[in-house]
Every structure is written in C-alpha cells, then in structure tokens.
Design a protein that fits this description.
By secondary structure, the protein is of the alpha/beta class. It is built from 11 helices and 7 strands. Helices cover about 40% and strands about 20% of the residues. A 7-stranded mixed sheet has the order 3-2-1-4-5-7-6, sandwiched between helices. Helix 3 packs across helix 4 and helix 4 crosses helix 6. It starts with 18 loop residues before the first helix and ends with a helix.
Length: about 270
C-alpha cells in the first residue's frame, strides 16, 4: 500500500480534554446528519458487519468517559460523526483493501486508529499514546471488540521512533493531535517507510503553516503530495487532510526531544 499527554481525573470527567476534541466540537450545527444517516455512511465505508462494533465502541467510550477524561464529545450522535466518521474520512485517500501497517500517533482514546481498524480489519494497527488511562481504554476496547493485529502502546513518539521494531516500518502514519506541521512531521517521518504516506487532518487557513511544513519536510525525507478537502456530510466545515510521502529515509537524528522541537522548529 502506497500510499495527546493529558492528565486525567475521575472527579471531573470533562474538564481536562484534548485540544483536538475542542477543535472537533465546533459551533452547534442544525444541519448535521441524523444517527441513521451517519450509520448508513459508516456502513458504506466500512461494511455492514462493522456497525455492531461501532455501536459497542460508542457504548464503551461513553461509559468510560463518566469516570475517566477521554473526550469532550459526549453526545452519542456526535461521537458517531466526529470520532468515527471523521476517522474514516482518511479512507478516501487510503481506501484500498490491501494489507498495511498503520500507526496512529497521539491516539488519545483511540481515534482515528480504532475506527480505521474496524473498517479495515486486515490492517496491522499500532496506537501510540502517552496518557496511561487512555491506553487502558484502548486496550479494554480492543478486547471488548475482539480486535486482532492491533497494539496499544503507552509511550512517546520521540522515544519509540528510535526503536528498531518501529522506525521506518509503517506504510501509513497519521496524527490527529493539534500541533504545528513541522512538529507533527518530525514526530511522524521517522516511523514512515520509504514510499509510505503521512496523513494529517487539519482545519482552518493553512497557507503559512503549510509553507513551514514544507521547509521541515525537506529535512525529513518527505515531499508534500496533496491537500484533500473533506466533503462527507456533517464534516464539510473546512476539514482537510494533508498528504506527505516519504521519499527517502528520515535522518537518524530525528525526532528530537519535544523541548528541542519547540525551541528550534524545523520550519
């Protein structure tokens, strides 16, 4: 195929949520699709057999979220739309049924990785997350849904990327975290094999940030391929997916520490 660390608390389950979730919530929208319409789209993208798994995952997420800070998106219909369907928007760019090894960096409660695994069970999936309670939810969900060939890792990208079993070994790398493009690319490129792709969901005016990202990409063995506008109903609100291709191995000095990235960004 060619192609978030957050402190959690059981006392106040919605105070500490990811910036990515806040970006996804957005303003109220009376034109959002209904639950049956979203389920129909999920079925079209992932197959009829996936619906039982999606509904079970929603149930587990909302139940856990009463005790652990997993997401700020708590409306059941919005979970289907802004966690599940939003994740499957990536399939518009990598929708092949062939096998692939996929990494979700900063997976949070497991998005987009868990929905992608449900939709493409033949893919080998790795979820990487720095917050232990979120990894616990990921592992619980993997067991509850009976998923195989999927691994939830409690760790940091800047450390795991220097491990031989993970570096330059993924066909597809994605990250939904809110961070600048130079930072996201520095985290992602070391994991991507030559010929593989990095898919980064973004929103808003990206002209300046994309220019910075292209400067960083030239140092990481990457080239920018395309900007894909998301047009799925309920998600056509400025969302786009930036596609990068790994054209040569990422230099061994990357990724640097998080503090080094913040002080001396590549772009």
């Amino acid at each position: 195929m060619q192609k978030k660390e957050i402190n959690t608390s059981t006392e106040t389950p919605h105070e500490d949520v990811s910036c990515a979730d806040r970006q996804l919530i957005g303003p109220p929208d009376q034109s959002l699709p209904t639950e049956p319409e979203i389920l129909a789209m999920l079925q079209q993208l992932a197959g009829a057999e996936s619906l039982t798994l999606f509904l079970r995952l929603r149930q587990e997420l909302l139940e856990w979220n009463t005790r652990v800070n997993l997401t700020a998106i708590t409306d059941p219909v919005e979970v289907l739309l802004k966690h599940f369907l939003d994740a499957l928007s990536l399939l518009e760019l990598c929708g092949s049924t062939e096998e692939a090894r996929v990494l979700d960096i900063g997976a949070g409660a497991g998005f987009p990785g868990l929905p992608l695994k449900i939709a493409r069970p033949q893919w080998s999936m790795v979820l990487l997350e720095a917050t232990g309670k979120k990894v616990a939810f990921q592992r619980h969900s993997i067991a509850a849904l009976g998923l195989s060939a999927i691994e939830a890792i409690h760790g940091r990208a800047e450390e795991l990327a220097h491990s031989a079993g993970y570096r330059a070994s993924f066909d597809l790398v994605t990250a939904r975290a809110v961070a600048s493009l130079p930072v996201l690319l520095e985290y992602a490129a070391p994991f991507c094999r030559v010929g593989g792709q990095i898919l980064l969901p973004k929103k808003g005016d990206l002209a300046a940030e994309l220019e910075q990202g292209q400067q960083a990409a030239s140092k990481l063995g990457l080239v920018f391929k395309t900007e894909h506008i998301v047009t799925l109903p309920g998600l056509a609100d400025g969302r786009r997916i930036l596609v990068w291709e790994q054209i040569e191995p990422c230099p061994q000095q990357y990724p640097r520490s998080g503090s080094a990235m913040a002080k001396r960004p590549l772009g």
